[in-house]
Task: structure prediction
Amino acid sequence: MVNNEWDDILYWENYKPCYEMLQELERKYGGDPANYDSWHREHYAYYKQTIPNKEEFIRRFEYYELHGKPHWIEGHHRTMNELTREELLDSFRHVTKENGAFHVEVSEKARQGWAAQHLAPYAEKVCSATSEEHKIMEMTVGCGVGTNAIVRSMTDKMFYAGVDIDFICAKNADAIGRYYGKNAIGICASLWNLPFSDHLFDVVCSHFGFDECREIPTILKEAVRVLKPGGRFVSVFRHNIWLRRHEIFEDYDIGESGALELMRKARLYTDFEQFDVLAGEAGLVKIDYIPFENWYLVEYRKEK
Ligand SMILES: C[S@@+](CC[C@H](N)C(=O)[O-])C[C@H]1O[C@@H](n2cnc3c(N)ncnc32)[C@H](O)[C@@H]1O
Result:
């Protein structure tokens, strides 16, 4: 099985047929989780039909390396300007206290279960205030596990803005903020072009977000731009992305080291070694690194 987050890279050269295929799958299977397997099977068949061998797979990565851009083509994510009237009306149920309660429940299970070790220091670092009106920006809200850990720890004087390119994911931050009665909002925007002025935030953070994003150097540049001088960048990452992304590479007979090399070329996150170099190039200085079994928490400071 493959995940359609690869489409932007593999079909960058000519996206239209891939887009039409996705539209067709949406018409046939969209909206019903019972059809998830059929959706994936047909999507996978499309990969095998249009990218028949390893050489073609690698050629597409090389094309992306040279011509790819930090720009959203399409995918399963719904941006603001794609919303229909019905979806907009439906989205109001995503900002309710009830939806907040749902996401808090799921996130609390994580905070007290698999994420117990790292979420406490993550939230502590993010909420450690250096100014009277501590302003936090979280990159990638997703389903809100990181958001919940932060927002529940915030004092009433703190402000949180969570950014996600997916409108509904961004709204999860509104719902969690409403649940706790804190100053938290979700903003639907791309991390490649943040809708904030320079030097606005005390902390920029992310919880397993970079592992799913394209164009890491551009995202880092934006993170540094919106941070105050001396502001901090706090993030949780997997040690190595191979376990999450191995399936498509194995399908094309490419092992771990070959896959990591291709991903670096395509400016995707691979591991701490690579991220640390990119962070240094963007103007961040490492101040802490805490390893856990499968992931790590890292903290940087923006040079003054
Ligand atoms: C794995 S989830 C993040 C997990 C989340 N932080 C949590 O703790 O539950 C990744 C999110 O990144 C978002 N994303 C991917 N690329 C993005 C981009 N360029 N700009 C903004 N959000 C993006 C996706 O929409 C998705 O919601």
Observations:
- The two ends are 46 Å apart (CA to CA).
- The pocket of S-adenosylmethionine is lined by residues 77, 140, 142-146, 163-166, 169, 190-192, 207-209, 212-213 (CB under 6 Å).
- Residues 4-75 form one domain.
